[in-house]
Fold this protein.
Amino acid sequence: MGLGNRRAQSAQAAAALWALAAVAATTSGATPALAAPDAVATPAPPPDAPPPVPAARPILRIALPDLQLTEVPPRWGTLIAHSLALELRKLEHTSVITDEEIRALLEHEAEKQLLACAQESCFSELADALGVDAIIIGTVAIVGDQHVFGIKRLDPVNARVVGQVTRRFQAGNGEELLVAIGPAVAELFADVPLRAGKTRGVAKEVAQRLNPPPLPPWVVVAGASTAGAAAVGSLATALLNLIQAEDLARYKASANPFVIATFNDKRGAVDASAIATWSLAGAAVAIGAATGVAALFTDFSESATAAEGP
């Protein structure tokens, strides 16, 4: 009986202690640990996966028809169009076809007529024929005392203008038009980076081709005169060579075969006149070609002639 009482008292004491522990845990916000749960193995984190490879940028196909020129020297237009094409080709993953290449790609005459059309509907048809993603329309004009340069980027798929840039400059020697090309392309294609190793802008050496130093008229006159004199001398030596050749043929047919010295002298004269003929003819052609090139860079205006003096 005494043993049973002690066991009952021990159980009551344990229950009281358990109740006190539960009250204390509830007051502190903790949950009494009734029993330690079985340990659960935590899976190891997966190894670092390689970063995803970015998708390659698709090739941007750009058509660059001939520039629309207004009161601009043709030489300027050709050089500006060439510089614009080079600047566009600096863009990464970009393919540019110029006016000459466009004409070669268009098979039918009706398609070639699209190049002469300035309406946006024509450009859409042109893009369909060429399979391009963008068309660049460039304009260069001299308006009063200003030079105007503008380019427009067309989206032929959605038939809309993506962007356009127009720059006006005080009329100069045309170099300001070349300087505007790099920033204009950068503004229109801000979403397209440059190719590795490329820098924006037209090289300064190109400006020298835009405005080569003019030559005085006397250079062309002197060159033409020299070429004419060489041509006349060539004709004269050619005639002399013909006469000497006929004389040598007659002498060979009738002369004493033992008179070798006279025959050799005549043959030497024929050879010398032949060499002189070809030399003068070559000089005439070379000087004439050089004079023709110089004429392209010669200022024949009255002001240049007056500057030469009497």
Remarks:
- Residues 41 and 47 are 18 Å apart (CA to CA).
- The chain has a mean pLDDT of 76.
